[in-house]
Amino acid sequence: MIGLIFGILELSIALSSPFFGRFLTRIGTRFTFLAGVFTVGVSCMLFGFLDWVPVGIDFVSLSMAIRIVEGIGAAAYITASFAIIANEFPNKVSTMFGTLETFNGLGLMLGPLIGGALYFALGFGFPFYVLGGFLLIASLVAVFLLPKQIEDDLPITMSYWTFITAPTVFICLLCIAMGSMSMGFLQPTLQPHLEKNFQLNTFVIGLVFFCTSAFYALSAPFWGWLGDKYGHSLELMIIGCLFTSFAFLFVGPSPILPFETKLWLVIVAQIALGIGTSAQMVAPFKFCLHNVIEQGFPNNFETYGLLSGMYSTCFSFGAFIGPTVAGSLVAVVGFPMGTSLFCIINLLMAFVVFLYMCSYKRTRHADTVKYQPLSSEEYSVSYGAIKKNSF
Questions:
Q1: CA dist 248 to 181, 209, 243, 325, Å?
Q2: Which are the contacts of 10, defined by CB distance < 8 A and separation ≥ 6?
Q3: Between the CA of residue 390 and those of 10, 151, 259, 374, 380, what are the distances in Å?
Q4: How many whole angstroms separate alpha carbon 276 and alpha carbon 211?
Q5: How far is CA 348 from CA 100, 281, 381, in A?
Q6: Per-residue pLDDT reduced to its tens digit, 156-211
Q7: Which residues lie below 8 Å from residue 188, measured CB to CB, with a gap of 6+?
Q8: Do the Cβ atoms of 24 and 308 come closer than 8 Å?
Q9: How far is the C-alpha of 103 from the C-alpha of 302, rounded, in Å?
Q10: With contact defined as beta carbons under 8 Å apart, do 40 and 47 qualify?
Q11: How far apart are CA 140 and CA 38, in angstroms?
Q12: Residue closest to 283 by CA, chosen among 242, 323, 339
């Protein structure tokens, strides 16, 4: 039941993000962002008061209700924030997106540390009061700092089906979901594995998890900078999948490897997982945005909202599915075999992106040749032939 209370947040984000992405221009991007942050802040503070509710059906029902509302608020401001970044920084989308993911990684690092310290010192409710109050203050500050977005009167002309059936969008969203699932796989499974094989205490296990978040936060701006400066987003997606495959190959380790598990190997695998999943998250966004615009989607907030909503949906759906599948899979086949299967899945993802990259580059090359203008010499020869054969 505890897992469901935690997981319902990601499921709520996944289900509500398409709505905000689809109607972002109707609701207003700025209002969506501010209302979302405010809703999450209030929900977080309310969750702290659950300590006063008797354990039982009332506690579970109120917990799930608050988490669902919190997920809706989170979907609103996450979707709006991605669209605002695409609009405010059109030439540095990947860099700014990588920076955003850096703070996501910092939150994953510092959240359990600070929350645990506040819980230990002041009790259950205080971490939620502090975080909720901080978010309410942040929403108030954003009222004055966030610029007005000119997009409210744009007509809605596209459907989600038209958008997600574009091959570029499908491949990119699949890569994002795979990266999120890979991050979530080890959340419920790595701690029992470390306790069983190395008899580590909670603090040391937390440091092992810290490696993933730290290198996710450190590498995300690097992938964004590479994407903006050199392009090659598909290649970066493939590299990310390969890093993640490497992580799952050695964290178990896989039964095909001729050695037993070692703590230093688990730490290296966690570092590789942070680096790989950050590439899987950062690289697709700008590539997907630019290519759907090339394919005829308007370069405005409507497209930004659709892509942002789908990104948030795929990320949250992967974060919900990953831990859910991991627990059952590891219970059936064991931790080494379960991580090996995820290694294979990420390798298949890399292969799918590689095939698409080959097709994409071949198509672009054919279009370039087809529409390449004649040189002056070729034009002179062609014009002379026309004159010679004319009456």
A1: 12, 14, 9, 15
A2: 71, 316, 317, 319, 320
A3: 71, 55, 80, 21, 15
A4: 13
A5: 28, 17, 50
A6: 566 667 777 778 888 888 999 999 999 888 888 888 888 888 888 777 888 888 88
A7: 3, 323, 326, 327
A8: yes
A9: 26
A10: no
A11: 8
A12: 242
33-61 tens-digit pLDDT = 999 999 999 999 998 888 888 777 777 88
One-character DSSP codes across 254-313: -TTSSS---HHHHHHHHHHHHHHHHHHHHHHHHHHHHHHHHTT--SSHHHHHHHHHHHHH
CA dist list (Å): 293 to 97, 286, 296: 18, 11, 5
Which residues fall within 8 angstroms of residue 115, CB to CB, at 6 or more apart?
127, 131
Q: Which residue has the tokens 């695998």?
A: 269
pLDDT at 10: 84
For residue 187, the SS3 value is coil
- Which residue type sits at 369? V
- How many helical (H) and strand (E) elements, i.e. helices and strands, does the chain have? 15, 0
Rounded Cα gap, residues 113 and 106, in angstroms:
11
Closest to 153 measured CA to CA, from 296, 302, 292 = 302
C-alpha–C-alpha distance, residues 313 and 318, integer Å: 8
Q: Residue 353 in 3-state DSSP?
A: helix
Going by C-beta distance under 8 Å and a sequence separation of 6 or more, which residues neighbour residue 198?
263
Residues in Cβ contact with 176 at an 8 Å cutoff, skipping those fewer than 6 apart: 280, 281, 284, 311, 314, 315, 318
Distance CA 240, CA 282 (A): 10
| More confident site: 370 or 71 | 71
Amino acid at 190: L
Residues near 43 by beta carbon (within 8 Å), at least 6 away in sequence: 66, 67, 69, 70, 73, 132
Cα separation, 181 vs 134, in Å, equals: 29
Q: What is the pTM of this model?
A: 0.79
